[in-house]
Predict the structure.
Amino acid sequence: MKKLLLLLISTVLISCQPQITEKSAGKWYQENPPQLSGQKFKIGSDEAAEMVVKVIRDFADMDKNESIIESMADSVNFYSPEGYQKLDMTTTETLASFQEPYDSIKRFVVSAVPLTFGEGAINIVDVVFRERRFKDGEVNRRRVFERFWVNTDGKISTIAIFPSEMTPAN
């Protein structure tokens, strides 16, 4: 009787194992690139998200540009409010030029969400963070949403930045 009860309980527990299903949601509406048009988003790679967060924090450190270069493709598409630039990421000079106007930078990451499409070869990582940039005793505060595209080689190939200035109380 004990064996029968044990067998019955084991069968019930085994049959109650949760089924892991891949969910998709949302949609890429833009027709450029055409292969993504209409594709649904899925959760992407945690490794891609961790790499991007490390790059964001290392940029604020201002002494880790060599480490950042290792995570970048040789050429990176950069979209900002000032317009589009194709950045040469084979040396640290490009990063230094972005950091040069500031005495120091502090960044506080709020969230990093990795997304992918179709076969999951390309990851997009959407990151939200707060930033304080210091120069000559003045502080510039802003909230930033950045979208990073991580290519099939696991390197950042595109960065789009959407900053929002903050009042001094924030």
Q: What stands out?
A: The chain has a mean pLDDT of 86. Strands lie at 42-43, 72-80, 83-88, 104-116, 123-135, 138-150, 156-165. The chain has one domain: 44-165.
